[in-house]
């Protein structure tokens, strides 16, 4: 039995090495493409539900973007705090702000996709750039950098949405590590011609792309997935671009407790089963190899079975992981995570297994 476990361990290590080099290598050694100099007219769309404080804090960073012509479409998704009043206050001071006030609809109650659809219909420009109320562009050139990729048939732009760094917080590092890993996945696959998701914190596409796909109708019944499921549905090798310049990043407010983070991830993970079959298989193999690597490595070391070879394989696996992750995190400006990779890797696998098991018994109902 130990021999079988050993050879299975070797197989998973080989799979991970292949993945680190040939998949994550796409972002680790990626060079940003030449950007278009044309400034397209853009509608920045922001959907908010009970976000009065975040709007006060972060909306000015969007209003003050250095870009010649853009409007901001603020969607109030049936908030019960002062979100609408805050939006109206900003709109009085800035004539490029449009407000869409969404009331609860019995057929689409607490469904962000319904609210977003109304906001997209109200947008006057063809090019749409999406973010969240708790997001802040990392530079005043965020719109320019993201929209410069609408060129040569590219109608979808995938950006990176980081989370704010909090000192002396292990949870914060774990959240950011998971965010980096997810970004490495979807950016690498996009570079390979297999785009499968994007994040609503930093995503752009054209109005034509949205309406040609009948919007969110194929997955309107699913409470989450306005970003990843839509991209999974419409993105392909020809129409998708990525933006990895630091000026195009956004920074969001991270969760501050394990329980709130788990609830958020439960909502996100429920959409994965609706991905295209090819994407589900490859992603499942990766996460299965992650969990199996740790379980088999610990088992073999406990029984001291071929322990010298096992230790050598573990060391080599982490060496290759360090090389690819260092280059990737350097591009994403997250290099402070590098030294903690083994610990973060282990805890993330444990958390993902916990969330997966939890989702078997209870699923989130609303986006907020």
From TrEMBL:
Domain Glycosyltransferase 2-like: 43-177
Family matches, as Pfam families: Glycos_transf_2 (PF00535)
Keyword Membrane set for record: yes
SUPFAM superfamilies linked to this entry: Nucleotide-diphospho-sugar transferases
Membrane-spanning segments: 6-29, 293-319, 339-361
Record-given protein name: Glycosyl transferase family 2
Top-level taxon in the UniProt lineage: Bacteria
PANTHER family reported in the protein's UniProt record: POLY-BETA-1,6-N-ACETYL-D-GLUCOSAMINE SYNTHASE
Gene3D superfamilies: Spore Coat Polysaccharide Biosynthesis Protein SpsA, Chain A
Keyword Translocase attached: no
GO function term, MF aspect, one: glycosyltransferase activity
Family in the record: Belongs to the glycosyltransferase 2 family.
Alphabetized UniProt keyword annotations: Glycosyltransferase, Membrane, Transferase, Transmembrane, Transmembrane helix
